[in-house]
Design goal:
Elements lengths: L2 E6 L11 H6 L1 H14 L3 H7 L2 H5 L1 H20 L7 E4 L3 H8 L5 H18 L5 E7 L3 H13 L4 E8 L2 E7 H13 L4 E4 L12 H12 L10 E2 L6 E2 L2 H11 L6 H10 L2 E7 L4 H9 L4 E5 L2 H13 L1
Parallel strand pairs: 1-2, 1-9, 9-10
Antiparallel strand pairs: 3-5, 3-6, 4-5, 7-8
Helix pairs in contact: 2-5, 2-7, 3-5, 5-6, 5-7, 7-10, 8-9, 10-11
Length: 313
């Protein structure tokens, strides 16, 4: 088989019931989820399986829940001996990728992302920040819009460069509103406000990033055994010190997901396997290159389907 990349989803992919079949039928997956409950001293798995969705969606719950669900699925998938040539995740998903690459233990990662979620929530008071998805505009045109609005005193920046024609902006509520209007005037097809609790991946997250650095200092971070394509640079990294620095920068820097996919394609990846709830990243990959193979592992049924299809290749 040619080169394979594992992808791990970020916030927004959480759904009530995720990982429940793994918990009930895969002992190793149950161990992972039970460990998360003990480490965080909360009933995370109960929240994952029973909801409510609004509580699960809170940043400090969604982040450890998605990491836990994705790693519990990865544990089962590893039994089939498929090893990635690269790993990558979208924002929060980068921490899942770090566990997959042996950089962080699962218990350190779940602790870190719970803290990360709390810090992100605290960084900007509710209602003062916002994010919006801008469709049908390239990054240069949109950056010209955000620079113009920011220069007039209302901070707004590019936050997620997801795929051709889909970019998320982030900043103050007024900045995002003004940039949304200006983008539409300058040719954007649509602008969709996002239901998020803060202006993630913008300079407004710098206070949270500083505190996150102190959290990461307490953890054991080792070199990666598999290259990770970093959100911040869209380049492979493996050294522990660089990984830690990029995790801090990631909080206030754009997620360069389109460039990350392109980098993996340039490195010879022809198969992308998204492991975790939802199919968001597979959809983005297809918008970057329709010819590549994408697979999703998000429950036991899809896992078996993926294994069968990979055997046929």
């Amino acid at each position: 088989m040619s080169k394979v990349a594992f992808l791990f989803p970020g916030q927004g992919s959480q759904i009530v019931g995720m990982g429940k079949d793994f918990y009930e039928e895969v002992p190793e997956s149950k161990q992972i989820m039970d460990l998360a409950d003990r480490k965080l001293q909360i009933e995370l798995t109960k929240l994952m399986f029973e909801g409510p969705q609004e509580t699960l969606t809170l940043t400090y719950n969604a982040q450890p829940a998605l990491l836990t669900a994705s790693i519990s699925m990865l544990e089962k998938f590893k039994e089939y001996g498929i090893k990635p040539d690269f790993v990558a995740g979208h924002s929060l998903g980068e921490y899942t990728a770090l566990v997959a690459a042996g950089v962080l233990s699962f218990q350190d990662a779940v602790f870190a992302v719970r803290k990360r979620g709390e810090l992100m929530e605290q960084a900007v008071p509710a209602g003062q920040g916002a994010m919006a998805a801008v469709l049908g505009m390239n990054s240069e045109e949109l950056e010209s819009v955000t620079n113009e609005v920011s220069a007039n005193g209302d901070l707004v920046q590019l936050a997620n460069l997801n795929c051709p024609g889909q970019i998320v902006i982030s900043g103050t509520k007024q900045g995002v509103e003004k940039a949304s209007e200006l983008a539409k005037e300058k040719g954007a097809k649509r602008v969709i406000p996002l239901e998020v609790s803060g202006p993630f991946h913008s300079d407004l997250m710098k206070p949270a990033a500083e505190e996150l650095g102190q959290v990461l200092d307490q953890l054991s971070i080792t070199d990666a055994h598999t290259p990770i394509i970093a959100n911040v640079t869209a380049a492979p990294i493996q050294k522990a010190e660089e990984i830690k620095q990029k995790l801090v920068e990631q909080l206030y820097s754009p997620v360069r997901f389109e460039e990350s996919v392109q980098r993996m394609l340039d490195e010879g990846v022809t198969t992308f396997i998204e492991i975790g709830p939802g199919k968001v990243l597979s959809g983005l990959v297809k918008k970057v290159n329709r010819r590549v193979k994408t697979y999703n592992v998000n429950d036991l049924t899809s896992l078996q389907d993926v294994i069968e299809k990979l055997k046929e290749e």
